Sequence to fold (644 residues):
Amino acid sequence: MGKEFIYIIPEILILTTATIVLSLDIFLPRERKSLLAYVSIAGLWLAAFLSAGLIGERVSILADMFVIDSFGIILKIVILIAASMAALLAIEFLKESNKYGEYYFLLLSSVLGMMIVTGSSNLIAVFLGIQLTSVPLYIMAGFARTDVKSNEAALKYFLLGVLTAAVTLYGMSLIYGMTGTLNLAEIATKLEHTNLNDPVLFIGMTFVVSGFTFKIAAVPFHFWAPDTYEGAPTPVTAFIAAVPKMAGFAALVRLVFTAFPEFTGQWVGLFGLAATMTMITGNILAIPQKNIKRMLAFSGIAHVGYALISLAVSNQHALSGLVFYMIAYAAMNLGAFAIVIAVGRVSPENQIEDFAGLGSRSPLLAGAMTILLLSMLGFPLTAGFMAKFLVFASAVEKGYVWLAVIGVANSVISLYYYIGVVRQMYMVPPKTEKPVPIPVTIGAVVLTSVVVTMVIGIFPEYFIQLARLVFLVNASF
Amino acid sequence: MTVNGPTIAFLILASLILSAAVYIVTTRNIMHAVFVHLLALSSVSGIYILLYAQFIAAMQVLIYAGAVTTMVLFALMLVKPKAGMEIALDNQQKGMAFATAGVFLSVLLVVLVPKVWATSQEKLTPLTVAKFGKILFTKYVLPFEMISVLLLVALIGVLVLASKEEE
Fold:
């Protein structure tokens, strides 16, 4: 037992940081509380380094509740670094309410939940991990308490989240009834002797998968996303948009590869359909949006659609493609939302029109936004291009050319609304001449995400190597 | 299904829980809903007793029937609803909701009713507190710790959402 704790030191560190933040909050004088943000960021980075030290390990610990494998570790590192960026974005926003302690405690708890989801090999642990990820997010979405829209965002997210939690649990109980176990690997063993066409099994599986797809906002479980993204304070939106989706995908991957490997042939039906619907809905509904946060919400839904292609393919290459996609997705979205925060400080309505003339008002921000939007579009030499390329290539390789074709067609549709923002920035005269000041913290996030996006796009080999390392304990491909 | 004592007890408890649940979501009087909720929660503890989990049954009565119901009453007292306050229970999407729930229910009935579940041949032994404690701190130590963090999050969350705005 003793040695097992080495493997969960990153998780323990995050929990410790969360409690330190909470206790330090009591003793710090009012004007020094922003220090808590830097304590949290230090904890997140330290946990990322410690996780990196575990790369190469393949073990199952804590009575087979938790596994350490390169898939989990790589996602964990990305989650931790992305969360540190999101933590940086909130510093300016929190100046008003001064609730640094509460905010960073909730953020760290949510990150802890995500870390546990990435390594869970038991349905109970996955379920609790998702709850631990979500409950802080519900509260964070309602953090601007006097803002009606923020309240609406929190309430919608909460009610739909609770509903899907119930559905997930019901599905898990059906799977437990069929197999007599909650351990993902044991479920796979038990199912070898079961009739796979049993409708009970199908319903149980569909319920659990639906619960997980809610977290990543895939169609038809995406309804919360636009309202929550729009209503929540933008730093919270950036966090919700970029980080928890990795945990949702991790849960799906564990379920698909570890618990139901027998169904590999059938995933293309379920996830192929979900991917197609998600891409089309996200892209079509992004076009008429006037609010930049809603537009990015639908664009995020579309990106989930592209990434879901890899689950339809469900082989080793697709898994690497998915991990690569998650890295690129987090970088692009954190950067874009950081710019939305900067512009929103001048024009708080967050309309796309507010970006008019940004090219002259703040050339640096406009340039960064252009790069990030081109990356979301999938323009060559950016991270978005390589991510889409890897996922589509894995589909073609497996013979699902139609999925790749739908993906490319959708990328063309997305040209319309991404370029719409670029057009506003450079071709439409500004409504106001007010310059856009860039606080250091926000500038740092924009710079980091642009650099990451460009580096991944121009030198993808290293990141592809990293993604190729991805390996799952207890999985047969 | 063989008709014996436990089966009859289960059927009585299940019908109590279900009818209480239907009453809670249909009644317009929120105080009635709270007290019928108490009935539903206590009946659930009866189901635990049928499953030989006496300790969990006792905890169910103490925590849910006792503490949670009291908390709900306190919350109601604090927001001061008028005695017997009537609340709107439906909106324009009522029809849609009924249709969806109906489809959901019929699919479940069609699939689950004819299903023959594999059951364990082992004789059920009572879950003692000692056994429960041991399993909680060995096999289920990770979920156990996670729940404690989750409760702390809920506590802080309530403070964030309900505390007075500082001047």
